[in-house]
Design a protein that fits this description.
The protein is mainly beta and 204 residues long. The protein is built from one helix and 13 strands, in the order αβββββββββββββ. Strands 1, 2, 3, 4, 5, 6, 7, 8, 9, 10, 11, 12 and 13 form a 13-stranded antiparallel beta sheet that branches.
């Protein structure tokens, strides 16, 4: 899976770098809402609920006329709210702060000169810029201690609309490919981050 992600990432970057002379390159800003939920593995009697966060950053869009193909990339500051709860009703939440770099392939269908619809998919590379540990909640007398990874990989799938070649709105799902955190010790537990995203962008 990691090899596939690496190959697709290189392909998108090469496509953006070698865009034909007729390609349209637009720079802009994007931001939106994260609705995150942890996917827990080997952590018994613990669950996770959706929690809201946000993201913002610069974005570039490359469109190849006629064929409808394109690519986009961004550098985002992202804050996701992580939450876990055990059977005793104890819960704990933490902000996970990161720099995220999504790189997507796109296919657009024009409805008119005023609007178009698009599908987008591609990898996203995250780099933790916050705390590296999390004492999440009690399990008997000991806390559930997690070591947060320095980096992780997720995958984006999304659909959206472009209006007037400047304003873009979309909804997407970002699911974890690699682990976001692991438990300390020999418990073997870990979790990944899965996130619904509502996005808006404006291109200059």
């Amino acid at each position: 899976m990691k090899k596939i992600i690496s190959i697709l990432s290189v392909a998108v970057i090469m496509m953006m770098a070698a865009a034909p002379a007729g390609a349209q390159v637009n720079f802009g800003l994007t931001g939106g809402v994260n609705l995150s939920k942890m996917s827990l593995d080997k952590i018994p009697d613990v669950s996770s609920n959706n929690r809201a966060g946000w993201f913002v950053g610069p974005k570039v869009l490359v469109k190849i006329p006629v064929v409808g193909l394109g690519a986009d990339a961004a550098v985002l500051y992202s804050q996701r709210r992580m939450n876990v709860e055990n059977n005793a009703g104890e819960s704990a939440s933490k902000n996970y702060c990161s720099v995220e770099i999504p790189i997507n392939l796109r296919y657009s269908v024009g409805l008119s000169s005023l609007a178009s619809l698009f599908l987008a998919t591609g990898p996203q590379f995250g780099f933790n810029v916050g705390n590296k540990t999390w004492k999440a909640l009690k399990s008997g007398e000991e806390p559930e201690n997690f070591k947060l990874k320095k980096s992780n990989v997720t995958w984006n799938i999304g659909v959206g609309a472009m209006l007037l070649n400047h304003v873009e709105a979309s909804v997407g799902y970002n699911f974890g490919v690699s682990k976001l955190a692991e438990q300390f010790g020999n418990e073997g537990g870990s979790f990944k981050g899965n996130t619904w995203q509502l996005k808006v962008a404006y291109y200059f």
